[in-house]
Amino acid sequence: MFAVTASAAVAHADAPGASSPPQPPGLTPAEPAATHQSYGLQILAVDALSLGVLFGGGGGAVTDLGALGFAFGGAAIHLGHNRDAQALGSVLLHVGLPVVGGYLGYRMNYPNDDDEGPFISTFVGIAIGVVAATTIDATVLAHDEEPQPLRWSPTLSRTPRGTTTFGLARSF
Length: 172
Hints:
The protein has 172 residues and is mostly helical.
């Protein structure tokens, strides 16, 4: 019975227009490497909530809580995903970019005699820094990436001329 089944499979594979026979188990090519998943929406949610508390808190301890949430909330999300370097980068972005933006905004209007000019330009610089920090954190840093191991797998296939080929394939 085995010989009849095997010969039927070979005869079917040689028929014109027939697809190649399925490859035996264990000889199929390696699965594609896993892709990365973004958790940027979590960063955006924490930053939006923190900014809402910061500007809507009415002052005092609630406002301080909003500022701390903005500075360290993204880092907490990164740490929850076991991404220590990204957590440090998040803190540096969330603290550094608003400070640099505020300083540049202030310096743009510094020699002006207008009392409100430096205040407005400083606030605009801080706002640009906040938006930039959140955007960079959520789009660049917030990705779970699994290391992609090198994989070797044997291959076995049949050519259009009817010959059988074998070899090794590597995915990286």
